[in-house]
What does this fold into?
Amino acid sequence: MSRPLAGLRVLDCSLGTAGPQASGLLADYGAEVTWVEPPGGDLTRRLEPASAAVFNRGKRSIVLDVEKAEDRERIAKLAERADVFIEGWTPGQADKLGLGFEALRARNPQLIYCSISGFGEGDSHADLPAYEGLVHAVVGTMAYQAGHREEPIFAGLPFASTGAAQLAAVGILAALHRRFEDGLGRRVETSMYDGALAFHQMLWGESDASLAANATGGATDPRAMLSRSRNRLVTRSFVCGDGLYLGIHTGAVGAFSRLMEVLGLDDRIKPVQGGFDLGTPLTEEESEILESSIHAVFASQPRDYWVKRLMEADVCAVEHLAPTHSFDMPQTVFNGMVVEIDDPVLGKVAQVAPGIRLNGEAPPAPTPAPAPGRDTAETLAALDRPAEPSSWRSNAKPGSAAEDRPLLEGLKVLDLGAYYAGPYSSRVLADFGADVIKLEPTAGDQLRGIERPFFAAQANKRSISANLKSPALRPAIEHLIKWADVVHHNMRPGAAERLGLGAEQVRAVNDKAVYLYAPGWGSSGPFRLRQSFAPMLSGYVGASMEVAGEFNEPMPSVGNEDPGNGLLGAIGLLMALLVRHRSGVSAYCENPQLNAALGMVAHIVRGSDGEAVGAARLDVMQTGVEALESLYETADGWLCVVVRQDDEIRTLQTGLGLDILADDRFNSIEARRENRLELTEMLRETFAKQTTAAWLKAFEGSGARVVKPAGRGIVHELMNDPLQRKLGRVAEVRHAEKGQVRELARLVRISGARLPAYRLAPGLGEHTDEILAWLGYKPEQIAELREKGEIRGPAKTAAAV
It folds into this structure.
């Protein structure tokens, strides 16, 4: 199963970073991707050569000019033979070109049509291009990214592109899953704005109760990770005695107390009974003791000493490394997460490999990214010959099954996971209508102690709380396994097996179930038993260095591996379900958090000389990655400028009263990169002369790519924006204790499939009684189990499941 998407035909007309990354993800797992580039090739090849080399590997490239009618007709003919079509034009442009969904569906009724724009159809910023910096300025990343100065902080990690690509892949695969049932093509629509929100979803949201309790505007302050701990959760990096950085996370049960013991602070900061530290505050005295002591203790010994001591104590302690330094670490090598590519532009480079494994098999090494137009003649010549139907075509005839029921209605998932990264996978499927039952121990998911991420990971699910070790409940657990199409967990290696829930044990009960395991480091290998928590693995792969700016000490990224791991898990599950449908084989799917973290920095490669190509683009002041992709301070605030093409530069220079392109130092991409400091200084001096409002007025109606970066109030604004609720990005639901809860909801729109009613994360065991009743337990049996402490949840009248 190294190529689960083999034979899937994908035609990609997108350019830039998000669309090609989406089709590149499909290509990594065997899809046949034909990439349509304009004459001269995609500009991203020159602006971000490392990124282009990675996300376009394994594809064919043809050059066509969409301004020419004959080339548009060629694209339409190619789409007739495709299973999937991807485009990245601004909303409405595809229709103007005659290449919109309805036009192409008329020629290919089974076509899955995917649109990935900058901000999405119907959004107030829909006309802005799909540029990473603009998205982060508008969405609010720059207000919430921790930095070495006050915000705004330019985004150093392109997680809007990563998120959009992964959301698109989820939507495409889910639509393919449904196509086998009803034979219908559908439109999948998402954006880089949605991609950024997928990573913010973990921490962004609000309720009437939370607003009454504080005035943070509905989001966690990222700088809290850099400041004094007020509760029994340490999530920080520390400088060790050798000047190297170590990330610590005490999210596991009892980990905070074990850390205090190793540091010699346990006599003054006492452990919590039962080890459930999350949600238990420190006293003022304990907080002061911790803050005044912990830095000096870590500085007393080198990093390797602390890694060894804390691994022995079973505390999450992860080295923070520079980009690509993790490529040679033992578990990275064991997982097969680095591939050597002889790239025609960059030469021999090491790239991040695809991270999902089906039945333990890695995809074969990909071929290098093609030169622009390498396959044009061959591809166009093939249009004159009859094509064999795709092996992915559905034999289903549209009929009663074509009703617009939720896309994944009927898919059943048993989720045994905890925390965020693993359970977010099933939450993504639940958003499309999958029936997800969360089976958690009677003590509850440890993450319940932190409301916002728990709500984000568990929305649209049901909860049963039971003693997983109880013989009396084993029949119920086995019944749920038999019921499920998918069984998921992210326990430490060996834990599920001890509970009788390992892959082989589940297979013995239900050999049709797809099994998803989302470990931290891997199910096997030298680091398999190390603890793993976000954002520590982001630090391990270099992301914390990337967001910190050149030469600076690492900073936690607001976009980390937890949501990425969840999205990859959803992609892996959907691929496995498609394999099951086509072959009858139910796969074991594994997506370690380490692999997902590496995927977050896949745009960086290592050259033959050891240089990390594509890394350290963010300047030391954390203002930008290029002179023309940067924040600039005005007389009273900030503006974000992102211009990439010459016509955009001309618009900018006209508004500024400059002539950038006439200057030999700045008249090409290469010249501007060579003279970045000079151009930055010229722009800095110019922008400082007027207020933000004055500059925005000067650029009004010009099409200039200049925006005011959103401030800290953006989350509250977003949660109460009627437009975002209409688009489905924000849901508002009544909670019995918290009042109205507003949180990020669906980030992919799919035609021909209605959305199920949005449900908040369930209370502990909220559905225990109704599920047990459905499984055949009588009311008196349920009452007895509750009395013995074998189950938890409110007693209620049983309902049909």
